[in-house]
Design a protein that fits this description.
6-stranded antiparallel β-barrel, elongated, Dna Ligase, domain 1, 16 helices, 542 residues, 20 strands, alpha+beta
Length: 542
């Protein structure tokens, strides 16, 4: 048995959680009260909503139309991580002014040491009450959780509980096993698969999982299961850093001219993030806790600590720099009626120096970012190569496909310039009646080569006025090649976007044909688009 009594005297973590923060931030930006139903959507599904919206039946995962059907007055907002981080800065500043040493876990949640706060205010309960009042002063509601370990304190904050020292495992034991994958600051996206597996194995509670021995978990599951098991047992997920990282890992940038706008801050932050991760890679380490430091023209020193469950990547580091600088440069209060200094208005808001200081690092060799879905070396190398191509040939020279809404395969692909926001031309979550059935073609041909579809007697096959083939198709001729058909489906009339096919007779149809293509490895089936009494290849199935 592991003794937690010594830990309880030296390690107590306090977590401040602002429930439904994306919805609260969206309401603040729109200038409406949080007493109104607010729902935040990503990919046309609810990702966050206020308590008022939940009372009306709105839940996470609902489609936009269904959510509006349950509550017609709901305020619809799009998911925006920049907005969430920018508007969370006044909350962080209020907590930091009450108890210094704040670490931001994500927009809407922060952590700090409970030991000093309890000593200053007399008890942990008194410290929690004072922090709730400090956050309420900026117009935000919050919940406080205190426990021996960070992960336990996060669960405690979601339940507004102060867990007594040494009782973290008992507090977690009755919770459903699905709770291990709820909070993103504690769990990677693949944690959902682990939780589903544990549930199917009969481990329905966190206590059931914690009852397994570390040897049983490590021999049967992956690395993430070991982390989740330590979380379930309320022991440290990773040992604390024995010493501070070497000083040569710190990077800084003198801003000339000074940074006054968010776009300038984003550019400088991405450049500084790339330099930091170059040094981290040279030292074979990765950063899990980072201090962002800034100096202004007025000589003011600003700093904020960000802690992450998983090691930071260059992109995630650049995002946190942009969020933090955006919050410092705007410094807007959630309470619209509260007078506050406008940092955008005066030259004193300009930032003259940026510094990144990693304060907690782990060995890079154990991360395996490429294997577990992170930003691996090959992906980074490919991205740099594509950016180089853009610099030589222009931004539109490199484009990526984004799933879009539509009925045909070409309509369902929106090409977006690399680096731009991947916004589809149409919502793919809409019903789209008449859409081409699954599976989709592996390759879509934009030039649409012409082919000939023939019956068994060699006569051409077309579509009747009733939407049927004039004869059963038996052969397909493509240039000098021909194949016998082993199957076909359709035809399906196409009544929309007929002008894109240069239709002269006002009729178009699609059909799928399966080829007797023995000896070929790729060509198995074709998607045909017929118009002007001729068939054209629109897509290839492999």
């Amino acid at each position: 048995m592991e003794s937690r009594a010594p830990q309880a005297k030296t390690r107590r973590v306090l977590v401040v959680w602002c429930p439904d923060w994306p919805a609260v931030a969206a309401a603040a930006e729109a200038g409406v009260e949080v007493t109104r139903a607010v729902a935040v959507f990503a990919a046309n599904r609810v990702v966050a909503c206020t308590a008022v919206a939940r009372a009306e039946g709105i839940r996470r995962g609902l489609r936009k139309r269904e959510a509006q059907g349950r509550c017609p007055d709901v305020l619809v907002a799009q998911d925006d991580s920049d907005r969430d981080a920018r508007l969370f800065e006044p909350v962080v500043a209020a907590v930091d002014a009450t108890v210094p040493g704040v670490e931001v876990l994500r927009p809407g949640m922060l952590a700090l040491s409970a030991r000093g706060a309890a000593r200053f205010f007399g008890s942990e309960a008194a410290a929690a009450e004072r922090l709730v009042d400090a956050v309420a002063a900026v117009g935000v509601e919050c919940q406080i959780g205190i426990a021996d370990e960070l992960s336990t304190a996060v669960f405690a904050a979601r339940r507004a509980t102060l867990v007594p020292p040494g009782l973290g495992a008992e507090f977690l034991a009755p919770m459903p096993i699905s709770e291990l994958a709820v909070e993103p600051v504690l769990a990677a996206p693949q944690r959902v698969e682990l939780v589903d597996l544990l549930h199917r194995l009969g481990l329905r509670r966190i206590g059931d999982f914690a009852a397994l021995t570390p040897a049983e978990v490590s021999s049967r599951f992956g690395a993430d299961a070991i982390v989740a098991h330590r979380c379930a047992r309320a022991v440290p997920e990773r040992p604390p850093a024995a010493r501070l990282p070497a000083a040569d890992l710190t990077v800084e940038h003198r801003c000339d001219p000074p940074i006054e706008r968010v776009d300038m801050a984003a550019f400088a932050g991405r450049m500084l993030a790339a330099e930091l991760h170059t040094r981290l890679a040279s030292a074979a380490v990765a950063c899990t806790r980072l201090i962002i430091h800034a100096e202004t023209e007025a000589g003011e020193q600003l700093s904020r600590t960000w802690r992450c469950a998983e090691p930071l990547t260059p992109d995630s580091t650049a995002d946190r720099i942009r969020w933090q600088l955006d919050g410092w440069l705007t410094r807007r209060s959630l309470d619209r009626g509260r007078a506050q200094e406008d940092w955008d208005a005066g030259p004193d808001a300009a930032i003259t120096l940026l510094r990144l200081e990693p304060v907690e690092v782990v060995a890079a060799g154990a991360l395996q970012l490429g294997l577990w879905g992170g930003v691996g070396e090959d992906e980074e190398r490919a991205r740099r190569a594509l950016i180089r191509v853009q610099s030589l040939l222009g931004g539109d020279a490199v484009r990526v496909g984004v799933l879009s809404g539509g009925r045909g395969p070409e309509e369902r692909i929106t090409m977006v310039t690399l680096g731009d926001e991947p916004v589809p031309a149409a919502d793919p979550a809409q019903p789209w009646p008449g859409r081409l059935p699954e599976p989709a073609p592996a390759l879509v041909l934009t030039h649409r080569p012409r082919v000939r579809l023939a019956a068994a007697d060699g006569s051409p096959v077309w579509v009747t006025d009733r939407g049927l083939f004039t004869a059963d198709p038996a052969h397909l001729h493509w240039g000098s090649s021909s194949w016998r058909l082993t199957g076909w489906a359709g035809p399906w009339p196409v009544d929309d976007h007929w002008w894109t096919h240069r239709v002269e007779d006002g009729f178009a149809a699609r059909a799928q044909v399966q080829l007797d293509a023995e000896g070929t490895t790729r060509l198995r089936a074709l998607l045909l688009l017929g118009y002007n009494h001729a068939w054209h290849v629109e897509g290839l199935y492999e």
